[in-house]
Amino acid sequence: MNPLDANRLHLTRRALFGKTAMGLGGAALGSLLTREGFAAQMADAMAPALPHFAPRAKRVIYLLQNGAPSHVDLFDHKPMLKKMHGTQIPDSVVGGKRFSTMTGGQTARPVLGEITNFSRHGRSGATVSDFMPHTAAISDDLCFIKSMHTTQVNHAPAITFFMTGSEQAGRPAIGSWLSYGLGSDCDDLPAFVVMTSRDKEASCGQIFYDFCWGSGFLPSKYQGVKFRGSGDPVLYLSNPDGMSREMKRTILDGIAGLNEMKLKDYGDPEIATRIAQYEMAYKMQASVPELTDFSNEPKHILDMYGPDVMRQGSYAYNCLMARRLAERGVRFVQLMHAGWDQHRNLNTQLKIQATDTDAPSAALVKDLKQRGLLEDTLVIWGGEFGRTPFLQGKIEDTKQWGRDHHPYVFTIWMAGGGIKPGMTYGESDEFGFNVAKDGVHVHDFQATLMHLLGIDHDRFTFRFQGRQFRLTDVHGNVVRQVVA
After folding, report:
1. In the chain, fewer beta carbons within 10 Å around the N or the C end?
2. What does the pLDDT look like over 419-468, one tens digit per residue?
């Protein structure tokens, strides 16, 4: 006899009334939920009818540069900045815009000329600074969007906006949406993997918040799995002494059986999550050690990623890991690298940061391309906003030159996965301060990302608390001009 049925036969009168006190209300609620909401979602939550149309990309690697790279020093060449260096930026340009508290009350806003040298590269003629020689060398594979703009002037809400479509924490991350909607092409690794790194000098205090890869109101099965930067990428990869793999399999089968009985009784998606995650953890005990073994990587590939590639937790190491995850079918790889926050150290730290990230980012694109993976892998590089064309601080104090947060226009680049290569889309004004042409909002960017994966962002929703939610909220247009 089923143990649960046996237990019910021995229910006391008190226990019976205790368990059924809310029976009528629960039945009524269950009836409502069956028609719309939770139960309806449970019917097909694991397999929505996606993609809506033929995708250009199968997977995404998002290289998020926390802290915000300075667009006017790296990609968006503005001769006017050097021409007007040291003079007050015109009020007509600033136009009452708000900034962070670091320059919000600063009355003197002298124009700061770029601290790098720009030149044109490739057949596309892309302008890239001398701090990014490896990126410059692959410029014909990239699509630069120089008219990105956002709404937030502080790091945490701005990053959250890019990652979840909302400035407030709690919504599902992009990777969670995609693993929920598209599932996984990999049986023994998570569909959504996250890795973090930071500059070796620890020059800025950016923090990685778990909600940037959280599943929000989606079942927690779809949250990102964070690989650690030291030791085992995932804890407890090895069984305890005396525990064989066969014994572990028997134990997990028993636990799964008990969980499945509870799932049938209650229909709680978190029970389904627990079953799935126990099984994934078992498979990862075999797949992760092979994934992290670089011994079969040719020397010229390791050299391409740079000298830090063998240092676990470095940006270079994570970029090579991203390629290895992509070729194993992982749907969404999210790399987050902190250190681009040059408020008082622009003249020193920007070059260090660019040097640490330039070669690995370019190597990832080249590595994917030579393996035939770039055509269906979308690679994204960019921060949460840009940096001000005017100076934070005093013009005479060159050792502490810096730039504040700047959400009004900035640059990102994309490659592969259905993106037109060798092009620049959008323009900023002559100061690199505002959008001058073809602005791309964060929700436009997200709508375009989903379009490349075969998803109509207007139709891909999840019902929660009586409302249909989507990644792009009620906004967003696909930027079709950048789609190949």
Report:
1. N
2. 999 999 999 999 999 999 999 999 999 999 999 999 999 999 999 999 99
What does the pLDDT look like over 389-415, one tens digit per residue? 999 999 999 999 999 999 999 999 999
Q: Considering only CA atoms, which of 233, 166, 231, 230 is closest in space to residue 194?
A: 233
Evaluate whether 145 touches 482 at the Cβ level (below 8 Å): yes
Whole-number Å distance between alpha carbons of 292 and 312: 10
Torsion of CA 355, 129, 391, 439, to 10 degrees: -110
The CA distance from 115 to 250, in Å, is: 62
Looking only at the bridges linking them, the beta strands covering 386-387 and 405-406 are antiparallel
Strands 332-338 and 192-198: parallel
Please enumerate in sequence order all residues whose Cβ is within 8 A of that of 324, keeping only pairs 6 or more positions apart, or say none.
291
Q: Is the CB of residue 193 less than 8 Å from the CB of residue 225?
A: yes
Please give the span between the terminal C-alpha atoms of the chain, in angstroms, as a whole number: 61
Residue found by looking up tokens 């150290």 in the block:
345
For residue 258, the 8-state DSSP code is H
**Model confidence pTM above 0.90:** no
C-alpha–C-alpha distance, residues 470 and 218, integer Å: 11
Q: For residue 275, with 0-12 CB atoms within 10 Å meaning exposed, 13-18 middle and 19 or more buried, which class applies?
A: buried
Provide CB contacts within 8 A for 288, sequence distance 6+.
189, 232, 233, 234, 237
A 10 A CB-CB count for 376 gives 18
As a whole number of angstroms, the distance between CA 440 and CA 406 comes to: 15
The tokens describing 26, both together, are 């629960």
Instruction: Determine contact, residues 385/157, Cβ cutoff 8 Å.
Output: no
The domain made up of 59-105+120-231+298-482 has a fold known as Alkaline Phosphatase, subunit A (3.40.720)
As a whole number, the mean pLDDT across the chain is 89
